[in-house]
């Protein structure tokens, strides 16, 4: 099912909503080639290539334009950065070699630093923190593995994962920025 997305050509943006240092924040993120964005000429190949763009509230080419316009609030509040499959098709097909998927990773980092992330991310992270993995292996699954001749899922040190999470401060971030949907 294709969702109709209303594109308004005359939308007026509030200049107070711009953050002229937004691109600088992206430039400072490691492994994000934001410099490639300057070559984007809005051909929409990224949007046409995206297998799930119909689920996005903003299309990839619109996000690239909004970054150029420093519209941080619109960009970090959109669902597209979280729904992105990271399949890299947009990036591979871009005629200007804009690193779209990589830029989306950077946008997720900035959104998270503002306390904006889907509730599912918080729940997923909490499960890994508590259990050491996202989904606990059940007795039934262990029996199935045994029937298939697969080895038992080896136990591991859950404290090591907690130590890593505590060192990077992810759980503290979630507690201090409890704005996730």
Characterise this structure:
With about 180 residues, the protein is an all-alpha fold. The protein has 2 domains: about 20-115, Alpha-helical ferredoxin (Fumarate Reductase Iron-sulfur Protein, Chain B, domain 2); about 120-175, no CATH class. The protein has 11 helices and no strands. Helix 8 (about 120-130) crosses helix 10. The longest helix is centred in the middle third of the chain and has 14 residues, at about 100-115. The protein is globular. It starts with about 20 loop residues before the first helix and ends in a 5-residue tail after the last helix. Residues about 1-5 have low confidence and may be disordered.
Q: What's the layout of helices and strands?
A:
Blueprint: H1 22-28, H2 45-49, H3 60-68, H4 72-76, H5 80-83, H6 89-93, H7 100-113, H8 119-131, H9 139-147, H10 158-168, H11 170-176
Helix pairs in contact: 8-10
């Amino acid at each position: 099912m294709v969702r109709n997305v209303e594109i308004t050509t005359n939308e007026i943006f509030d200049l107070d909503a711009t953050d002229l240092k937004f691109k600088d924040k992206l430039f400072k993120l490691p492994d994000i080639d934001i410099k490639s964005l300057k070559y984007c000429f809005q051909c929409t190949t990224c949007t046409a290539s995206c297998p799930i763009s119909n689920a996005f509230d903003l299309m990839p080419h619109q996000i690239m334009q909004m970054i150029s316009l420093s519209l941080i609030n619109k960009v970090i509040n959109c669902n597209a950065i979280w729904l992105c499959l990271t399949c890299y098709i947009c990036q591979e097909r871009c005629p200007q070699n804009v690193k779209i998927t990589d830029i989306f990773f950077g946008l997720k980092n900035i959104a998270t630093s503002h306390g904006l992330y889907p509730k599912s991310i918080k729940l997923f992270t909490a499960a890994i923190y508590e259990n050491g993995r996202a989904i606990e292996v059940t007795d039934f699954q262990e029996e199935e593995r045994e029937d298939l001749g697969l080895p038992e899922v080896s136990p591991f040190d859950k404290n090591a994962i907690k130590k890593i999470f505590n060192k990077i401060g992810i759980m503290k971030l979630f507690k201090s920025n409890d704005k996730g949907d």
